[in-house]
Design goal:
single chain, 6 helices, 14% strand, Seminal Fluid Protein  PDC-109 (Domain B), 3-stranded mixed β-sheet, 3-stranded antiparallel β-sheet, alpha/beta, 8 strands
């Protein structure tokens, strides 16, 4: 389906070069000139479109220039200076080439439907065992701000309106669903709970419908 996007710029160079000028030195020169185009093509139509098959970063591996690895934020990083033990967050040795190791052609099929969402979360974190539990809301009312950015239209001529109008704003305490993550998977994401939760939310927020609230817990 995507074969029309496959291209070798060095081959195009060769085909556009008159036969009398196709000496090896000229063809090699063309390969050097078109290398930036080929690199961008491989990033866009390769990693971004189809996803990365590179392994997770390992701090014991000796990486050389052009090696790629998937880090804990699920981004793809390329080594720009040979290193061992320097994490991809170190810009002296690494540069980020994609925010997501899963290709866009796969991600466009994801949705907030429970079974699809669960698959996507497990795929994102490269694990099994993540599941979603739907919750029953117990909130019967909410507090609305009287002025400012937390206000909205509300009928306030009733005798009980003062129970609902206040200078506080609504802080949600109920969640529509819960993402359950195996504790070993969760702990391996980062060194603290804030970063661990943010890694999960970076992905989950994209597929959670507006107005739907969720929380993350381990088991």
């Amino acid at each position: 389906m995507y074969d029309i996007y496959i291209i070798s710029f060095s081959l195009v160079w060769e085909q556009l070069t008159p036969p009398a000028l196709r000496a090896l030195v000229f063809l090699n020169w063309g390969t050097v000139l078109t290398k930036p185009l080929q690199y961008l093509y491989e990033i866009i139509f390769g990693i971004y479109a189809n996803g990365s098959t590179d392994l997770d970063y390992d701090n014991t591996t000796a990486y050389v220039v052009t090696d790629k690895a998937v880090y804990t934020d699920r981004g793809v990083y390329e080594c720009i200076l040979a290193t061992t033990g320097n994490a991809p967050t170190n810009t002296t040795y690494w540069k980020k080439v994609s925010d997501n190791y899963i290709g866009i052609r796969e991600r466009v099929n994801y949705s907030s439907q429970k079974i699809v969402f669960e698959y996507a979360l497990n795929r994102w974190l490269q694990c099994t065992g993540i599941y979603i539990g739907n919750n029953v809301s117990t909130t019967s009312s909410f507090v609305m701000g009287a002025t400012g950015q937390y206000s909205s239209s509300m009928w306030n001529s009733g005798e009980a309106s003062s129970n609902f109008l206040t200078n506080n704003y609504f802080v949600p305490t109920d969640y529509n669903y819960t993402i359950y993550v195996p504790v070993a998977v969760y702990n391996a994401l980062a060194s603290n709970n804030t970063d661990r939760t943010n890694i999960v939310r970076t992905f989950a927020d994209k597929y959670t419908l507006a107005g739907i609230l969720y929380t993350i817990t381990t088991y």
